[in-house]
Structures are given as C-alpha cells and as structure tokens.
Amino acid sequence: MRDTLSNAYIIAKREFAAYFATPLAAVFLTIFVAATGAFAFYIGGFFDRGQANLHAFFAYHPWLYLLLVPAVAMRLWAEERKSGTIELLMTLPISPTEAILGKFAAAWAFIGLALVLTFPMWITVNYLGDPDNGVILASYIGSFLMAGAFLAIGAFISAMTKNQVIAFILAATVCFLFVTSGMELVQNSVRAWAPRFVADGVATMSFLTHYEQITRGVLTLDSIIFFLSLIAFALFANAIAVSQKKSA
C-alpha cells in the first residue's frame, strides 16, 4: 500500500507539472476564474442581491463544471491511447492502479488550484459585509468534491476511447444526467414509467441535491460519502478499462 501511494505520488507530480508545460494551463485557469466571476457578478446579480454571501458565486459551479472538467478529463487517457504512449506507460514498473490514482490526483489538484485562485471573491465579500465563512468554506469543499466526481467520470470515459472530442461529449452528457437527475422535470419523466422507488433512487444520484445542501452550510456525511463513493466507483471502472487495454 505504501509503495502504491508512493508511486502514485510520483506520477501525480509529473502529471501536475506537465499541465504547466504549455500555455493551456494558464488559459484554463484564466477562463475558470473569469467565468466564475462573470456568472456571479453579471448573471447571479452579486451586487443587486445586497447580501454578504457567495451563493451567486457557487450556484453556477455545476454548470461550469459541465464544460470545464470534461475538458481536463478528456486528455487523461484518450491522448495516451491515441499517441500510443499508454503502451509505454504500461511497460513501466507501475501498476494501472498507481497510474490511475496519480493521473486523477494531478488533475483534481489542478482543478483545486483553479478553485483556490477564486479566493479574491471570498476576500471581497468579507470586505463588503459579514458573511458566514463556515458556509463559504463548506461550499468550497462541496465544489471540490463535486469536481472530483465530474473528473472521475470523465477519466473513466477517456479510458474508453482514443478520441478526445468523443470523450468530452460523452463525459459532459453523463455528468449532465447526474446533475439534473433530481430536478422536478426529470423526476416527473421517470415517475411516468417507473415505480416510485426507482425515481427516488435516481433523485439520490443528483449532484445538485447534494451540492446545494452543502452550499446551504449542511455538510452532511451522506453527501461526502456520496461524492467519495462515486469517485471510487468511477476510478475502479477506470482501472478495469485500462487493464483491459493493457491485456489486449
């Protein structure tokens, strides 16, 4: 176990550094910070609300992640498969699990860095009023966990194809279903043909339900377990997909 974590850490460091080998990292971080600010100020009416909180800022994270996180995830394995470097990677003295954990950790840390760079929003709202910083901290944790779930799903889909565009579209589509599964429109559609317990089961898979609960300051164990379990399951599926490609 110690060797696994050590090797995964080495891969994560290499992958994280690789993000900054091209200008794409700076472009992504700039777009992320600008988009979160624009949504909060112009669409969320940050100043018009007259409230010292970041509800308008966090409310749009699930929708931004639908575009930005699959864009990060699509290259994790699809690029390796297209360039043929996955064969080289698999010949190294590391296991697929170590490679998967390392790549995922690097990508998750990169998205975490993007979140950290939005800290001026937190400073601004404290300058303007007296916000509940506990709720803001919980919202950041919830956003980071949700981003991890988006990323794990995207990484799994990336391992299934050589085409990054297909990986992006499929990941965004699957994540969209997870985001909207608790909405009334979706629930009414499911209840029209399925028993109630099926509809309730679909609703419990909603990213929005768990995330909005956290952004209200209710950081429950259920929501944490939900996101972590989903990440673990998607990474497990990712490991199976990579192992099959390795043995093929």
Automatic annotation (TrEMBL):
Main localization, broad class: membrane
Membrane topology: Multi-pass membrane protein
Cellular component, GO, one term: plasma membrane
Subcellular location: Cell membrane
Keyword terms: Cell membrane, Membrane, Transmembrane, Transmembrane helix
GO-annotated molecular function: ABC-type transporter activity
Domain of life: Bacteria
Segments crossing the lipid bilayer: 20-45, 57-78, 99-123, 135-158, 165-183, 224-242
Record-given protein name: ABC transporter permease
Organism: Hyphomicrobium nitrativorans NL23
